[in-house]
Amino acid sequence: MAATGLNKKVKRSLNNEFILIRDARLEELDKISLLLKEAYQQYESILPTDAWNSYMEDIMNVRSRQDKSQLIVAEVNKQLVGTVTLYLNAHRSEQEGWPIGWAGIRLLAVHPSYRSRGIGRALMEECLRRCRREGIATVGLHTTEMMDVARRMYERMGFIRVPEFYFYPRPGVVVMAYRLDLKTPIRQ
Predict the structure, then answer these.
(1) 35 within 8 A of 58, measured Cβ to Cβ
(2) How far apart are CA 106 and CA 123, in angstroms?
(3) What was the pLDDT predicted at 159?
(4) Higher-confidence position of 178 and 100
(5) What does the pLDDT look like over 54-73, one tens digit per residue?
(6) Class of the 9-181 domain?
(7) Is residue 81 a contact partner of residue 74, using CB atoms and an 8 Å limit?
(8) Alpha-carbon span 112 to 21, nearest angstrom
(9) Exposed (0-12), middle (13-18) or buried (19+): which is 140, by Cβ within 10 Å?
(10) From residue 37, how far is each of 62, 72, 113, 126 by CA, in Å?
(11) Any idea where the domains of the chain sit in the sequence?
(12) Angle of CA points 65, 150, 130, to nearest 5°
């Protein structure tokens, strides 16, 4: 997990609040785990109990990803309100299966009470900025039908579906893959 302090960006939300986008700090990992749980809680009733429990265990285990990814957070009024995990070398992300040379974005989360303020978009834009800075040409991410708000945002930003990277964790469940060619400007 990068914690350089060099990756700070301030943006205004749709409510004219200041959003600080920065690297997570080690002492914040437990808070980030809880933020992920709260952000994804809405899907609990959709998934079977065993699938939900396994998914929660995975997404809340932020420490297991810190040596191979960058954990980025959004802060409003000194409160953590969003997070995303960026793999500059997505091939190192065991679950995702991206080609060598791609970056990967995973686990975009915004606290439910802070949604529809541009925080998720600001986190995504920061991931893409970092990828461009590193000279990465392609970014991949996975999502599902149930995550329709995020999926529509990705599509508005120019991400396109890549079915060859879909995966099927259980019968009837499709995890869709998207990619963005970073030589293409981000759509507004």
Answers:
(1) no
(2) 11
(3) 97
(4) 178
(5) 888 988 999 998 889 999 99
(6) alpha beta
(7) yes
(8) 18
(9) buried
(10) 11, 16, 14, 22
(11) 9-181
(12) 50
Would you say residue 187 has pLDDT above 90?
A: no
Task: Tell me the torsion sign for CA atoms 116, 119, 120, 121.
Answer: positive
φ/ψ of 104, rounded to 5, equals: -135, 140
- Global pTM value: 0.88
Place of tokens 């929660």: 56
Is residue 43 within 8 Å of 25, Cβ to Cβ?
A: no
The token pair at 1 is 């997990």
Task: Give the 3-state secondary structure of residue 29.
Answer: helix
Q: Where would I find the beta strands (DSSP E) of the chain?
A: 9-12, 18-23, 70-76, 79-87, 103-110, 138-143, 160-161, 167-170, 173-181
- The whole-angstrom separation of Cα 21 and Cα 135 is 21
Name the amino acid, one letter, at 21. I
- Cα separations (Å) of 13 from 21, 121, 122? 12, 10, 9
Closest CA to 24 of 40, 36, 13: 36
Contact yes or no for 153/143 (Cβ under 8 A): no
The length of the chain, given as a count of residues: 188
Q: What is the pLDDT of residues 130-140, one digit of tens each?
A: 999 999 999 99
Tell me the sheet residues that pair with 109: 83
